[in-house]
């Protein structure tokens, strides 16, 4: 045996310094305890140089209060750092923490006290402190500002780390994509190479040359973006305001934050001008309070600027302000309310101090609702040879659009005000009627004017509205030039700085840039155009008891299996913000690229009014058909859609016989229903119509078109199945078109394909014929689901009778026969149905999972939807199945009562939950503040894609896990422990024994694998070779046989 004495001696020598240091730490801890037990009055000696007072003196507090009253807001983040600077009390506390850091007990007590003071102190000091306060801080702080900020950064860094561990989950949610652009004017960069837009979550910079996204500036936090404006002094800076009252100054070129200010109120509109006689910005903000609207002038300054942050209130009114425009460096302010225009003029135009910005206001009212306006400052022309007048009067021209489609032109309105000023002396009310000012009328629009803007030279102005026509009005001739057939209504018009381009914001969430000479599109930026639900759209029914839920109905959406990053969804043609039309038709198909965050294409699925008159002879708007259902085949080659159009009640008055129920039934029987099949055209990147089936579910007895309840795609072949109101299940398959036995070929020499009805299966609501039938009554709803291999088709029927629990039929797709009828599951309030592996999932009054192999219930869980009963929630629940990982997701809607006001609509929210059919507890769950309108499974990978009522898309995917090596079976763990157990003896002998043990284990594992031989099942081999009517390619057949022979998956038994 080897002598271990030298090794022990060496270890003892190395341990001696460690024991000494340990003893020293014990003595220090004892002294700390003694110091902690000493009274606080004697722990710190009184000294003028070492004392650190915690609070300010009365004079200092008074000076600070006066400064806060004058400014009311300070800088939170400056150019050098984006971290929050501490308050005055927080600085003092941090100094005490740093000085007492030598003892652990004092440090802990100081940190607790610091957190308490930071919680109570809500005002955050910054760069706007006056000189007296800065001097007091310098005396009270023995530590440098850098050390304080460093300590705060360390403390702030630890808190989110703990929160991250608490919220750790196996599923991750991607950042939101899409969302509607804000209803504000787009902003051109000075060189017109970029266009700045914003949605609720971020500021987006697009290239005008390529129409691609160049940069994204996220707002961060829980607030939403409300307004933004470009700096007038530095073109690379932009001010961004959010709903929490924070204004952030961004360098949009570099993507960095320059400054941040808390103004304490949400900003609705914002405009920036240059301060007179300086190179600094003045930010005019429209801020909203509890019962008032305020216009404030902010001088927001950063650390690098010598001047301080200032605030001046310009106007406070109870009227709702819709827009604001500032002219001549703040000399004039023009704003509009719902029925008036207000003009403010500075009383002291020669004074440049912010506190001298005081205004006198003049208001003139309109008889109709004002929708938009634009003000223009016109330079006064002087005759040749005459010197210009030094103190000449300003000339302002106004163009105001109203809801009747009229544009009023007020020329030199200041002169008009001066003319009537003498007549209104002594009157308190300073407003006039717009008609008394005798404006010019420009009337071409037949609906409300959406936008109006002056040109750079003031010779013409541009207007647009619901007619999807851009109109250019020449002032000299009074004639109008039109650009018709835009894709949607015009909501905003912006003229570029050079006047060579127009930027138009359309009511379908798109922005186009037109050249002023050719009026051709140079830039086209398109967002997600799905149904947008605003708060004002949540109207109540005529009785005023319940919220109208039609706008929350399902949006047809699917993922393209041929390109998993492509999302297909139906969209309306136009969604004007100032019109509450309820549920709009959705006649278009939009393809959105999730990987590149942009829309790829948009095409019509039904007839539309893009180039046709959309007004009936009686003056009502002609509604388009709406796509109700959408599915893509398993290979992405075919697209099936169902569109429906019901004649409006106003057009069926000739059917009125005095019975409302009969009139409604006759109107529904005259609906138009089309089942369309589209084939993918890769060359033109669109879908081509291949076949159209008129009235796929027709009522023979009443000669009416029945509604299509559900549409599903065959998972293993080209085919679709539909179920309708006529109690018939139909399976549709493609077929080569023949003429006299010869294949009909198209232009590309390929055989033309048509779609025909392959199977028609009548379905019943009863298992026993003696029980009677309710087929004379229409079903409430019906749902379809294909099994994974496509051999079984399940159809569940929910009837209008509350006493009938409904029935679910299992149909053999090859023989078109009903193999089993299930009444064990109550489907009275059926919402969705789907196969997940060998399980059939019912989403009805409760979530039910049924094992089809063992024919037994796996589990049933209740579904809670606050504010909705079980019948109301049927069309609002979303369901999707991912066959790649055998999971399914459910989105449940919630409508909570508004506690602030009973007149306001209910607060909507949605809970998305992911389940495994083998476990009752969900895998993941999350709640969002908007209703989920569509839910689809990702193709070729795990996860789901959700679309909400704000037109935002998010992907829910499992988190990536660390790669784990395969472990041996449990019964061999004892042998492994024996092989790696160290025995007494030399090191060489131990390694040899361990190596022999490893070889033995490897041999045992190899022997076990060789004994596990693959046994081919004849049925599995037949299923692998037989794939329906069309034989698969040889590579696919070879792969299937190889999988069976190699013992992969279910090939071994």
From TrEMBL:
<keyword id="KW-0804">Transcription</keyword>
<keyword id="KW-0677">Repeat</keyword>
<feature type="compositionally biased region" description="Basic and acidic residues">
    <location>
        <begin position="150"/>
        <end position="169"/>
    </location>
</feature>
<feature type="compositionally biased region" description="Basic and acidic residues">
    <location>
        <begin position="117"/>
        <end position="131"/>
    </location>
</feature>
<feature type="region of interest" description="Disordered">
    <location>
        <begin position="150"/>
        <end position="170"/>
    </location>
</feature>
<feature type="region of interest" description="Disordered">
    <location>
        <begin position="1"/>
        <end position="131"/>
    </location>
</feature>
<keyword id="KW-0690">Ribosome biogenesis</keyword>
<dbReference type="InterPro" id="IPR001680">
    <property type="entry name" value="WD40_rpt"/>
</dbReference>
<feature type="compositionally biased region" description="Basic and acidic residues">
    <location>
        <begin position="56"/>
        <end position="76"/>
    </location>
</feature>
<dbReference type="InterPro" id="IPR015943">
    <property type="entry name" value="WD40/YVTN_repeat-like_dom_sf"/>
</dbReference>
<dbReference type="InterPro" id="IPR036322">
    <property type="entry name" value="WD40_repeat_dom_sf"/>
</dbReference>
<dbReference type="InterPro" id="IPR011047">
    <property type="entry name" value="Quinoprotein_ADH-like_sf"/>
</dbReference>
<dbReference type="GO" id="GO:2000234">
    <property type="term" value="P:positive regulation of rRNA processing"/>
</dbReference>
<dbReference type="Pfam" id="PF00400">
    <property type="entry name" value="WD40"/>
</dbReference>
<dbReference type="GO" id="GO:0045943">
    <property type="term" value="P:positive regulation of transcription by RNA polymerase I"/>
</dbReference>
<keyword id="KW-0539">Nucleus</keyword>
<dbReference type="GO" id="GO:0032040">
    <property type="term" value="C:small-subunit processome"/>
</dbReference>
<keyword id="KW-0853">WD repeat</keyword>
<dbReference type="InterPro" id="IPR053826">
    <property type="entry name" value="WDR75"/>
</dbReference>
<feature type="repeat" description="WD">
    <location>
        <begin position="442"/>
        <end position="483"/>
    </location>
</feature>
<feature type="compositionally biased region" description="Low complexity">
    <location>
        <begin position="36"/>
        <end position="53"/>
    </location>
</feature>
<keyword id="KW-0698">rRNA processing</keyword>
<protein>
    <submittedName>
        <fullName>Uncharacterized protein</fullName>
    </submittedName>
</protein>
<dbReference type="GO" id="GO:0003723">
    <property type="term" value="F:RNA binding"/>
</dbReference>
<dbReference type="GO" id="GO:0006364">
    <property type="term" value="P:rRNA processing"/>
</dbReference>
